[in-house]
Amino acid sequence: MVWQDSPLIVMLTNLTEDAKAKCANYWPDKDSKQFGFIAVTLKKVLQHMFVGSDDTNKSALDSVNVNKNRVRNINPANGCGADNINAVYIDGYRRADTYIVTQMPLSDTVVDFWRMMYDHSSATIVMVNEAAELARTDAMNGAHQSVVFCAVSRILEKMKVEQQVDVFHTVKAVRINIPKFIDSLLQELLVKILLDGQPIEMVEDLLAVTSIGNWTVNTAVVEALAVITDSYRNPDTASVMLQEKEGLEVLKSLVIQVSEHHKHGGELVNPEDIINLLRPFCADAIVPVEPRLDVLQILEQCFDLTDNDLVLLVLYRTDAIVSTAWEDKKLTEADINCDSARQKLFNSLLGCSANMAQYLALSKMLRVWPLLSSFKTR
User: Which of 113, 219, 259, 348 could join 302 via S-S bond, C-beta 3.0 to 4.6 A?
Assistant: First the structure.
């Protein structure tokens, strides 16, 4: 610990580190406590947290701290008290702990942010997000951009001194400080490759030279498709990784890739995982009918669907037709899930048809349905 001729004590360790007791608790948990002839009164404990290991800090998940994190899946690690701040040291080329990477402060963590800047005599603040991005959270968060900035700065610093560019050892060094961030950045890269329309074999090649957690080509494909489906479920917070691309076109291209790969004996991707991911999307009432219908048609072209999937396909096709001619008519699976139900629906709509658009809709409906075994009208 460090102290001066002042009431401030600076403790440089935790009470327990790596399951070993480092120090006795020499202050009260609250109020006052007598230590021999000295009474100690607790005023306030200030703690800063800097992370560098792969262990998640459990106190960061406490209710008092969890709302301090701008991105919920990026938490500080190691031990820390209730007054923590989400930050991490990253080594530079010439000295350790050159950079402090932290989130942009929330409205109730601004004081914590400036206190950290003051305590560590930080003279320069580099903001890697546009101010407009603060209104949304997406996959390309500032944590990744900050790590890239520090890595590039380290590369440039070494280039000035040694006239060498060493990307491999730079990434390796940064990975020691923040392994989860580097893995997350590489995972994002794999997803971006697939969203850009590159072959899945490129992902296989990258995974052959670097391990990224427990990720496989199958994982990358599933995550890429999840980015697309999420963009339809939450259009206001759609991932920037799509970069204005038409989501369904990207999805179709990727699913066709998987289908062709599987038909030629490839085992990098499991088609069943793709269907299991997209099936709930096709039944999600939050999503408009048209993209759900499109996805089902893509699956029908590429894979063998179950009977339940085929019922959904008929439902969405029928609903798309009916909604244009009978705006108030709402359909359910019970209206089309068997031959007799479809015939009953047809007769009902025929009885209330009054214009050419509705008669044409009936004709289209018969073309998208399986052939009716019996056809009786009144």
Answer: 259
Radius of gyration of the chain (CA): 29
d(CA 88, CA 76): 8
Indicate whether this model's pTM tops 0.85.
no
Most confident range, picked from 312-321, 331-340, 367-376: 331-340
Please report where in the chains the tokens 């894979």 appear, as a residue: 303
Q: What is the rounded CA–CA span in Å between residue 157 and residue 146? A: 17
| N- to C-terminal Cα separation, the chain | 93
- Ramachandran quadrant class, 49 (left: phi over 0; alpha: psi -120 to 50; beta: rest): beta
Per-residue CA distances from 281 to 242, 246, 334, 340 (Å): 18, 17, 20, 28
Strand 38-41 to 32-35 pairing: antiparallel
CB of 319 closer than 8 Å to CB of 331: yes
Asked if residue 90 lies in contact with residue 155, where contact means CB atoms within 8 angstroms, the answer is no
Cα angle 143-147-150, degrees, rounded to a multiple of 5: 140
The whole-angstrom separation of Cα 216 and Cα 26 is 50
Strand partners, 99: 90
The sign one gets for the Cα dihedral 79, 83, 87, 91 is negative
In this prediction, residue 108 carries a pLDDT of: 76
Measured from the Cβ of residue 376, the count of other Cβ atoms closer than 10 Å reads: 8
Buried b (16+ CB within 10 A) or exposed e, 46-64: eebbbbbeeeebebbeeee
Q: Which residue has the tokens 């490839």?
A: 266
Distance CA 86, CA 78 (A): 11
Domain boundaries along the sequence of the chain = 178-305, 309-378
Distance CA 67, CA 106 (A): 9
**Beta carbons of 60 and 84 less than 8 angstroms apart:** yes
The set of residues, in sequence order, having a beta carbon less than 8 Å from that of 105 and lying 6+ positions away, is 112, 113
Neighbour count for residue 276 (Cβ, 10 Å): 11
Q: How far apart are CA 30 and CA 108, in angstroms?
A: 24
**pLDDT, position 87:** 76
Burial of 299 (0-12, 13-18, 19+ CB in 10 A): buried
